[in-house]
Amino acid sequence: MKINNLEEIAKKYRREMFEKFLLTKTGHPGSIFSMMEIAVSLYHGEFVRLKENKKEFKDKVLISKGHATSTLYPILRDFGIISKKEWDSWGVKKSKLRIFGNTSIPGINITSGSLGHCIGAGAGMAISYKKNNQDNKVYVVISEGELYEGSTWEALLLAKHRNLNNLTIIIDVNSLIILGNTSDCLNLDPIKKKMEGLDIKTLEVDGHNINQLVDALKNTDESNEISCIIAKTVKGKGSSIMENKKNWHYWSPMTDEEINKTRLELK
After folding, report:
1. What is the C-alpha separation between 191 and 147, in angstroms, rounded?
2. Nearest in space to 191 (alpha carbons), one of 147, 244, 235, 141
3. Which DSSP letter does residue 64 get?
4. Which of 251, 214, 218 is closest to 231 using CA atoms?
5. Domain ranges of the chain
6. Strand, coil or helix: what is 3?
7. CA distance to 26, 57, 138, 237, per residue, from 242 (Å)
């Protein structure tokens, strides 16, 4: 595994997703771009393992911030889980692919989008694997905004109580929700101390630094307890037009000049 290769892969996927936004005229670029290195580190860093048949993954990845599930599509295409035909059809003609992922799409492990549910679902999967003596792992990617949901904290309490060391929670902290800055809407800081207050092993990293992400994932993989990675990210990472702007939670119309500028910046 070469870190610089993973960095280039993340850039490539941002470019490909941007072209899909232009085709479909819909999507959530801010949230997708903020978690791209997280997704690349999980899959191309080989933390999410393929089954022997190479046709599906042994480990589960749940994108609780369901509006960003399509981050996984180009990754799943490159692993041969989603066909190139489906990818090429998306935005052009009938395709299984949607902005919000669902379990009818190969490689997507949960239908998400209603925030605050995937830690609970992931905990259930992790409990089942332990009960059946299976070494499968579960990774749950949530947005910091999901910490506004009571169900998130209930699930964390359960996961800690059951000592689910096969469950890793990754919080994508890009400091923005639809309404604006999280610090203004309802301040969540210090998130790390809150997680540690639940006695959950917690690491904090730059969510765009592949080295830091890989090191943190290695650490959690080797841990004997439930773990949390807080990934500090930039909403809309890679595009100066989108970065740190709440309106880019959703796709917005762009001028030809803005499109060209974004394409250049994503190179």
Report:
1. 9
2. 147
3. S
4. 214
5. 3-265
6. helix
7. 15, 33, 31, 7
pTM of the model: 0.96
Q: Which amino acid is at 98?
A: R
Q: Which residue has the tokens 């800690």?
A: 160
Tokens of 162: 């059951």
Q: Is the peptide bond before 190 cis (omega within 30 degrees of 0)?
A: yes
Write out the two tokens for 120.
């609970």
Per residue in 172-206, pLDDT tens? 999 988 888 999 999 999 999 999 999 999 999 99
pLDDT digits (tens, 9 = 90+) for 217-255: 999 999 999 999 999 999 999 999 999 999 999 999 999
Distance CA 148, CA 225 (A): 24
Beta strands in the chain (DSSP E): 60-63, 138-143, 167-173, 176-177, 180-181, 201-206, 227-232
∠ CA 205-69-154 to the nearest 5 degrees? 65
**Helix, strand, or coil here: 227?**
strand
Domain over 3-265 is classified CATH 3.40.190.10: no
What's the CA gap between 24 and 129, in Å, rounded? 38
Chain mean position to CA 22: 21
Both tokens of residue 230?
Answer: 């807080």
